[in-house]
Structure formats: structure tokens, C-alpha cells
Specification:
Largest sheet: 6 strands, parallel
Oligomer: single chain
Helix content: 40-55%
Shape: globular
Number of helices: 11
Strand content: 5-15%
Radius of gyration: 22 Å
């Protein structure tokens, strides 16, 4: 007769296997997937078309900003538009920004966003932030981000009478990189954008290291750079306008284009 803790009552063999399987799947969903995504943005490449830069040697670059960062500095935003207009008065026919908007932005500022789009700027989606604090398994967080993307896609289409083409991947610790999110983006025929240079502003001016990184990126690729400028968290007192104007003025010999132009497949190279 067998003896042991499982011989009388307790969990039977089949039940033990099922319980172990559930625990294994829960561990993979809550720990494994976020860890892999943090180490490598695999989701964008497995589930959708993802870009960290566009075609090099095209002399076209994309400057990307968050609408929320622009909203913090509405009084000085005219300076940004003026800097772009100066570019167009020179040897550039196009000088536009790529502006990331969340579902919350689309809901609260539809009229203002339409006016910005009418100026020729490209509006793209970003994963919505206000659900990122949700607790529970990573799988459920992915479903939340996927649902928010569906709603944002619908709101965008209603406002601009066209479907969005791009969505931001977001940072390493964000639900924006969840594989379920990427799969939803693919199903909605959207492309994922990362960046070739990330500029996180800590003050009102670009640091020397940031200026050097931007110059190096632009000169190495001669076009195709995707420069993402964003304010660091808890930086409500910082203005993005001065740094953005300095960045726009510093880019010479390269046109400031939309993501769809910079990351265009089979783009013509300018050697």
C-alpha cells in the first residue's frame, strides 16, 4: 500500500497536472512575456510591421512628439509653427511634425487636432496611458490595451475621416509593447513605430549629448531618422517649445516629413 501526503485525500494526479499547467501559463503570462518584451521588442516584428528608422539616403527625417507635451505649452506653441514655416521658406517644400495622440486626446481635443492636421502635420496614435496602472496578469493588461486601441482607431476615423496608419510602440515598461497590442495593430492594418533617436527632455534646452546623438543619427543615415522628442515624467514645469525649435533649426539639408514618407517602402535614395 502506498503511503505519502497524496495517498488518502488531496489532489489526484490529473488534478495536479492541471493545476501545474495553469500555474505555468499564469507565470509565463505575468512574467515571461513582459520580460522578453523588455529585452527585445519582438512583438512588433512577430505580429506587425515595425520600424526603428526609415529608408536611409533619402534626405528625409521624421520628428515625433506627443500631443500632451505640446498641450503643456500652448502659449509658446506658435514658435514651433514659425520655425517650421521658416524651413519651408528655405529649400524645403515640406516641414511637418508627427504628433502622437492617445484615446484621451482624441476625446478631449478633436477640434484642435483637426486644425493641426489641416496644417499638414501627421497625426498618429499612441497607447492610452490611463489604464496602464491596471493590476493583474499581463494577459489581461494586453486585452485592455487592445480594446483601447480599437476605440482610438474608431475615434480617429470619425474625426479625420480616414484610418490611422501608425501607432507608437511606447517605452519598455509600457503595455504598448504587449504582443496582443501588436496583433491588434496588425489586424487594423497599422504600422508600429519605434525611433532611431530618443530625446527625453530634463530641461528647457537640448543637452550636448542629445545634440550629438541627433547629429550622428542624421549624418550616418543621411535620411530615414526617426527622432522622438518627449518630456520626462513629472516634468510639468518644463517647456518643450525651445528644445523643439532648436532641433528644427539644427537640421540642415534634410526635409522634415511624415512617418509614411520617411518609412516608405522602396523609397528613392538621394546619394
Amino acid at each position: 500500500q502506498s503511503t505519502g501526503v497524496l495517498s488518502g485525500g488531496g489532489v489526484h494526479g490529473d488534478g495536479l497536472i492541471s493545476f501545474s499547467l495553469v500555474m505555468t501559463l499564469a507565470t509565463i503570462a505575468s512574467i515571461g512575456v513582459p520580460l522578453l518584451n523588455a529585452l527585445c521588442p519582438m512583438g512588433g516584428y512577430l505580429f506587425s510591421r515595425a520600424y526603428i528608422h526609415g529608408q536611409p539616403n533619402t534626405k528625409k527625417v521624421a520628428i515625433c512628439v506627443n500631443f500632451a507635451d505640446l498641450q503643456k505649452d500652448t502659449a509658446k506653441r506658435t514658435a514651433i509653427w514659425n520655425s517650421l514655416e521658416k524651413k519651408k521658406m528655405g529649400d524645403q517644400s515640406t516641414a511637418v511634425l508627427n504628433i502622437f495622440v492617445t484615446l484621451e486626446d482624441l476625446t478631449m481635443f478633436p477640434t484642435e487636432l483637426k486644425l493641426i492636421a489641416e496644417k499638414g502635420h501627421n497625426i498618429a496614435l499612441a497607447p492610452t496611458d490611463f489604464q496602464e496602472t491596471v493590476c493583474g496578469l499581463s494577459l489581461f493588461r494586453g486585452n485592455t490595451s487592445s480594446c483601447n486601441l480599437q476605440i482610438a482607431h474608431h475615434e480617429f476615423s470619425e474625426i479625420f475621416e480616414s484610418e490611422p496608419s501608425w501607432v507608437l510602440a511606447k517605452s519598455v515598461d509600457s503595455i504598448g509593447r504587449h504582443p496582443i497590442f501588436f496583433r491588434e495593430a496588425r489586424d487594423l492594418s497599422m504600422k508600429i513605430v519605434y525611433w532611431s533617436t530618443l530625446v527625453q527632455l530634463k530641461g528647457d534646452k537640448l543637452s550636448k549629448d542629445q545634440q550629438s546623438a541627433i547629429r550622428s543619427d542624421c549624418s550616418d543615415k543621411n535620411g530615414g531618422s526617426i527622432i522622438y522628442v518627449t518630456l520626462e515624467k513629472d516634468s510639468s514645469s518644463i517647456s518643450i517649445s525651445t528644445s523643439l525649435c532648436d532641433l528644427i533649426d539644427s537640421i540642415d539639408g534634410l526635409s522634415l516629413e511624415s512617418l509614411s514618407v520617411v518609412a516608405k517602402d522602396n523609397a528613392d535614395m538621394v546619394l
